[in-house]
Amino acid sequence: MRYAQGGGLTPREQRARERIRLQAGERFARGEKTAVVAAVLRVGVRQVEKWRRSWREGGMDALRSAGPMSVERLSPAQWERLVRELAKGPLAHGWDEGRGWTLGRVKTMIGRLFRVGYTVQGVRLLLRRHGWSLQVPAHRALERDDGAVGVWHEEVWPWVKESPRTWAPSSASRTRRVRG
Predict the structure, then answer these.
(1) 21 and which of 3, 63, 76, 164 could share a cystine (Cβ 3.0–4.6 Å)?
(2) What residue stretches are annotated with the Winged helix-turn helix domain (predicted)?
(3) Which tens digit of pLDDT belongs to each residue from 116-171?
(4) Extents of the domains making up the chain
(5) Tens of pLDDT along 31-89?
């Protein structure tokens, strides 16, 4: 999700972004050029142009954060309970352990426990705001033979990696640079 759409920024990230906008406002007041402000603050020129327009229309207050784009629907007590329930694992809530916690499962559990509706994307943003991140389990086949994999990497992969060059032309046509 883009920054302008809320982006799921944590409160700390929102404050940091607001500080950058306010620094830009101070530089606008000193008469610095847009490109210079963008380079110093390490943001895009177009973003600085938007900030400058807002600053012209509303001053420094226009650059202040409007707060979170979405209001969290879980109270702190509900969040703590959710964390405890997640720690029990999916098996305790009727799901198999194999897939672990998915966003869909967490969404369903929030609905069951608190009668609060979230979208899958909303669950992702909720978890991110609280410092949770995506975890991808390492699945290995039971039939995996590490010895055979090692042999393949040593003997077969170097041969496969080097693509044989042929005398025949490729099917891609040549392209020319556009003259303008």
Answers:
(1) 63
(2) 99-155
(3) 999 998 899 889 888 888 777 667 777 888 888 888 888 888 877 776 666 666 66
(4) 3-63, 76-129
(5) 999 999 999 999 999 999 999 999 999 999 999 987 766 678 888 899 999 999 999 98
